[in-house]
Amino acid sequence: MTSKARRAVVLLSGGLDSATCLALARQADFECHAMTFDYGQRHKVEIECAATLASSLNAASHTVYSLDVTPFAGSSLTTGGQVPKDSPKPGAGSIPSTYVPARNLVFLSIATAYAEVLSAGDIFVGVNAVDYSGYPDCRPEFIESFAQSATLATRQGTEGGLPLTIHTPLLALSKAEIVRAGQEAGVDFAQTTSCYDPYSSSDGPVACGRCDACILRRRGFEEAGVADPTRYAHVVQR
């Protein structure tokens, strides 16, 4: 990493997409400051994965930000509700119960404040509008609108001449294309997790294999022709 590298905040959940996003940001010679959110998610194993990925992908720093979403935790990822399983067409139809109210809006707002402290004009986020599960805060319209609002709302954007750029390198990629991009960028997929409802075992967490995230992940590896290191408790037949 050179002294001239531009600083960027990279949202790192510990999943396949965000790991690939961090790897691509590093390839572009950004000094990457990874940020992970602990928001009471049931799949907390992703926080451990994020720490491992930040180290292996040479992030300049890694911050875990604890966020109490109890007042607006209307999601099966943060409450005792049931995570949807065995969907024949994951990502299709109405917004699923795994949607966390305004999650990316909140995450990006906090990341913007952190970026301003770092004098960073760039944020990377691994949102995807192709193989995602219908979340409205993954759409390009939202990202574009947020970047404009963040520039208007910050001192470095209004007085410092440093408009905020939101990078979404995975936005238009299929899950298979993301897998290939991650492989080419040197991501160790065994360090990532995607499952919304993992099981505990003596050998570590096991992916359920039945939630939308598991189905899309497995399909992506199959279509990419890349070995999936994930241990699944169940495999949904297509």
Task: Summarize the structure in words.
By secondary structure, this protein is of the alpha/beta class. It is built from 7 helices and 5 strands; from the N terminus they run βαβαβαβααβαα. Strands 3-2-1-4-5 form a 5-stranded parallel beta sheet, sandwiched between helices. Helix 1 crosses helix 6 and helix 6 crosses helix 7. The N and C termini lie far apart (44 Å).
Topology of this structure?
Elements: E1 7-11, H1 16-27, E2 31-38, H2 45-56, E3 61-66, H3 103-118, E4 122-124, H4 140-153, H5 155-158, E5 165-167, H6 175-184, H7 212-224
Parallel strand pairs: 1-2, 1-4, 2-3, 4-5
Defining key terms:
single chain; 238 residues; alpha/beta; Rossmann fold; 5-stranded parallel β-sheet
**Radius of gyration in whole Å, from Cα?**
17 Å
Overall pLDDT confidence: 86
Strand order of the largest sheet: 3-2-1-4-5
In angstroms, what separates the terminal alpha carbons?
44 Å
Q: How many strand units?
A: 5
What helical percentage do the residues reach?
Answer: 25-40%
- Approximately how much beta-strand content do the residues carry? 5-15%
Low-confidence stretches: none
The largest pleated sheet is described as:
5 strands, parallel
What string gives the helices and strands in order?
EHEHEHEHHEHH
The gross shape turns out to be: globular
CATH-level-4 superfamily name: HUPs
Give the second-level CATH assignment, the architecture.
3-Layer(aba) Sandwich
CATH topology descriptor: Rossmann fold
Which structural class is indicated by helix and strand composition? Answer: alpha/beta
